[in-house]
Structures are given as structure tokens and as C-alpha cells.
């Protein structure tokens, strides 16, 4: 049961942080496209950067979910 809850915390953390960054990357990408992109190569590079940021957000979110689970388990009294 503990493993299932830990996995759930990791997944929720990863998805939550990824969604936050997804909502931030969209407007920033649109702004970059309108103001700075000169050709399709610039847009391709911006897309790759956005994918890298999403991947990092998934990893960091999973780590934060695991960290939250460990803190929660430390506060729980041990049950036989």
C-alpha cells in the first residue's frame, strides 16, 4: 500500500508541475513567435527548448512528489 501511495504522489507531483509549465510555455512561445522568431529554424529551436523544459518539469515534479510523500510519512505514527 505504501508503494502505491508513493507512486501516486510521484505521478501527481509530476503531472501538476508539468501542467503549470505547460500553461506558462504556451504564452511565452506565442510571444517569442510574434516578436523574435525570424524563420522556421528559430521556431524549431524554441519548440525543442519547450520540450526540454517540459521534461525537466516532469522530473522535478516527480522528485517533489516523492519528497512530499517522505515528509508525510515522517509525520505519520508507525502502525504495526
Summarize the structure.
With about 80 residues, the protein is mainly α. It is rod-shaped. The chain contains two helices and no strands.
Oligomer: single chain
Separation of the first and last Cα atoms: 14 Å
Number-wise, the strands total 0
Q: How many separate helices?
A: 2
The portion of residues forming beta strands comes to under 5%
Largest sheet: none
Mean pLDDT, all residues: 93
Order of helices and strands: HH
Whole-angstrom Rg: 18 Å
Features:
2 helices, rod-shaped, 80 residues, mainly alpha
How are the secondary structure elements laid out?
Blueprint: H1 2-35, H2 40-75
Helix pairs in contact: 1-2
Account of the protein in words:
The chain is mainly α and 80 residues long. The protein is rod-shaped and about 65 Å long. It contains 2 helices and no strands. It has helices spanning 2-35, 40-75.
Amino acid at each position: 500500500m505504501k508503494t502505491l501511495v508513493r507512486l501516486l504522489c510521484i505521478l501527481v507531483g509530476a503531472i501538476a508541475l508539468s501542467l503549470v509549465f505547460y500553461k506558462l510555455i504556451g504564452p511565452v512561445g506565442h510571444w517569442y513567435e510574434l516578436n523574435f522568431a525570424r524563420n522556421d529554424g528559430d521556431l524549431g529551436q524554441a519548440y525543442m527548448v519547450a520540450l526540454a523544459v517540459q521534461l525537466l518539469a516532469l522530473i522535478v515534479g516527480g522528485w517533489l512528489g516523492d519528497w512530499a510523500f517522505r515528509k508525510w510519512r515522517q509525520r505519520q505514527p508507525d502502525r504495526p
